[in-house]
């Protein structure tokens, strides 16, 4: 059946709406933006024309390929698209030219004679003068893109980059959401390995040259001279412990049908294996031991960070808590005002490991060191990730440089050394530090290491400061530390900051209250310019979670639709959906040793996924696996009235685990969910409110390749779960 075209044979009448039309003095010789010229056929006739794809290299019409890697467009029965389109930005670019790369033999070459048209068939209007939004990349519609072009768009044209991509994908493409092997198999698949983009030569160069300022040029001596830690007694340390009188925490753990009730005092731990074996009716000796522990810190967990460069018999985890603050006239300051000085502490725990990198379930973790201060609670803590030689004596062991942002708005760097005594806890009061910085008229909110010598920190007014440690330590202690770079890159409060270390240490990722994730090049002379700062798609709600995934060269963030997204470094303005959670995200962690990602939610779930295959081929069905789920409920009136009740006044928590790998829940259509249609899972625009203690508030992967499968998760009720997730 044919359809008669609706093209008019006579020209349409033209009615003047411009009162000044016809006056030559008021008319430009060539208007900057003329109305778009219409096609020979009307727009309504396009409905019956099959969609064609034009090969940019030769202008020929090609067929749409099934192995479309950049489209992210799923089958008809899937209501959600997997790659967010940049249609909104393309509409803004309709009136400006697109810069294309030309070159013989390149799959990204474009035909100069091929006209650029909009979706409706209108010709694009070239405006070379307006280049502020030009990305310098081809404007593909993501419907038919070859695999080779996908690699070039995501990772560049350098063959060395392709080689790293191929090695990483061949190694981890077939891995599950959680790491399954400590060492690669006979085919080289699986296992742990540091970044292929940095390489062994880069790591060795970092060890040999990156720490010369510390070992050979007097940096270590300056830290020891300016830093003063005083050893105190446990009784004196109680003045810096705001949750010392917290009661025991009761929780359930084990099989769902017959869980085991456990009560933990503060700073005590219990083995996960013991919690399961205590109620098992079958022979437990034949089963592999579960290597992990649950600790009770007594208050909401704020920070968790594993110490890097530790390949010895112990692994170290630094923690900080956020006790409930009674808001009053003296401490009711907003997030933009530094809080007054108050006592607080940070804790360093040690976990024993065997020769193969497995966690020893027969040796309980020990609270090694407690660092007491008067700066308030630590809002962010991060160890310097640069590779370095181990530094230890018979009695002490150096863990490296620890940078932190505290409640008083200040940034500080500590040189941490712990005792090798595996039986006693050391209490230290921090009298002075080697490097302290306070921004003018604002406060620091987040930080990230760029290298062994440089540190970046964000502020509440949208600025980023970069400090050079050798330069700062060379100054007189009485002189205020000034950053070598201080520039504004955002219009609001910066919630999160992380660097693209180790492959791109000069690039930083930030997330602010304006909803835009940003990628900024600190090596640029104007970091806030369009050439140095790239914006990703805006989120309707503020997202304070962003992390760098070096294995896939992408930034990982979560949006308001409960979806973790990957933002490729060379296609930062588009994103690939990696999964779908069932509650808002509260914590995010990536590993430098393997591609597995962990993210926690307000529902108490800790979900793992492997994005390696999906970032390159978005049509692959995403899968994820729940590590564990944490729940909390308040104490009932009967439990409060009965002092002998084991639950107590602090309520009851529960851990459930043993989840299998499952397909990502994507059918969140609102209408189908409200009508109760079969298969509908819920409405992404409606978020459930959970108890504050239920949320997973902090996550961390162990950065040492020997123990890369160790993960730690902190919860809102003060419980911390540390487990070796690689099967023994």
TrEMBL record:
Biased composition (Acidic residues): 42-55, 62-79
Biased composition (Basic and acidic residues): 80-93
GO terms under cellular component: nucleus; transcription factor TFIIIC complex
Main location per the UniProt record: nucleus
InterPro entries: GTF3C_component, WD40/YVTN_repeat-like_dom_sf, WD40_repeat_dom_sf
Localization terms from the record: Nucleus
Domain of life: Eukaryota
Coiled-coil spans in chain: none
Keyword terms: Nucleus, Transcription
A single BP term in Gene Ontology: transcription by RNA polymerase III
Cited Gene3D superfamilies: YVTN repeat-like/Quinoprotein amine dehydrogenase
Protein known as: Uncharacterized protein
Native source species: Cryoendolithus antarcticus
Lineage of the organism: Eukaryota, Fungi, Dikarya, Ascomycota, Pezizomycotina
